[in-house]
Write a structure and sequence with these properties.
The protein has helices at residues 47-55, 77-87, 103-114, 119-128, 144-155, 174-189, 201-206; strands at 3-16, 19-32, 36-40, 62-67, 70-71, 88-92, 162-166, 193-197, 209-214, 217-220. By secondary structure, the chain is of the alpha/beta class. The strands form two sheets. It has a six-stranded mixed β-sheet. Strands 2-1-4-5 form a four-stranded antiparallel β-sheet, with helices on one face. It starts with a strand and ends with a strand. Bound molecules: adenosine-5'-diphosphate. The site of adenosine-5'-diphosphate has 11 residues, from strand 2 and helix 1.
């Protein structure tokens, strides 16, 4: 199986004056194409820090991250941004959409930024997510469920090899949550590597693998 994203011995310390928080203490994680992995653990255990390091939004103090075989960590932000844009989709609880753009406009924007403009992929994506009829609707006029699916469309706009999601279903009702999780599972079947940080039992339920963090260490995989 192809390794989509790999973290090796990640360390991340936050210092504030005399205080030092060890958010990650030697975390190694390898996720293959087609895997759907849930990252679980108590609040403060390092889940968001791990996700930020995997995305190249944060730099680990030790260890490294590779995406599709390319080193992402320990590079200038500009290079990390380029690697992230090509390989990684991010799905956040909210704020995945620019409100004044339409659904299609949001997807187009990401494609433009990543230099991967593909209208037929966009249309298939919106169709697959049940948003074909909403393509021309401004993001502000979407229902909660539609906005969640449109957020996923944005995350998948550049055909990433990895999707990183932080509590993507945190604000959704149960029916919408299941729909989004179904879509994530379908995408994983299609070869996408999906890493989801979540407290939701439904997310842990559909994941075939769970990585448990406690105090910045992997305590279960
Ligand atoms: P989780 O996502 O599991 O709740 P986090 O990764 O957010 O955990 O946080 C892990 C630890 O690192 C916590 O103790 C948190 O307070 C600390 N932390 C996270 N981000 C920062 C930061 N930017 N500055 C200082 N401490 C931080």
């Amino acid at each position: 199986m192809t390794v989509a994203i790999e973290a090796t011995e990640l360390y991340r310390f936050y210092r504030a004056g005399e205080e030092e928080t060890r958010a990650l203490r030697g975390v190694s994680v390898r996720v293959h194409a087609g895997e759907l992995v849930a990252v679980v653990g108590p609040s403060g255990s390092g889940k968001s820090t791990l996700l930020a390091c995997l995305a190249g939004l944060d730099e680990p103090d030790g260890g490294q991250v590779r995406v599709g075989g390319v080193r992402l960590s320990h590079r200038p932000e500009r290079e990390r941004a380029a690697i992230r844009a090509r390989g990684i989709g991010m799905l956040l609880q909210s704020d995945n959409l620019l409100p004044h753009l339409t659904v299609a406009g949001n997807v187009d924007l990401v494609q433009h930024l990543t230099g991967r403009v593909d209208r037929s992929y966009r249309d298939r994506l919106l169709d697959e997510l049940g948003l074909a009829a909403r393509a021309g609707t401004p993001a502000t006029r979407l229902s909660g469920g539609e906005a969640a699916r449109a957020g996923l469309a944005v995350a998948l706009a550049a055909e990433p090899v990895v999707l990183l999601a932080d509590e993507p279903t945190g604000e959704l009702d149960d029916a919408t949550e299941l729909r989004v999780l179904d879509l994530l599972r379908e995408r994983a079947r299609g070869g996408l590597a999906v890493v989801v940080v979540s407290h939701s039992p439904s997310v842990a339920g559909i994941a075939e693998r769970r990585i448990e963090l406690v105090d910045g260490r992997v305590t279960g995989d």
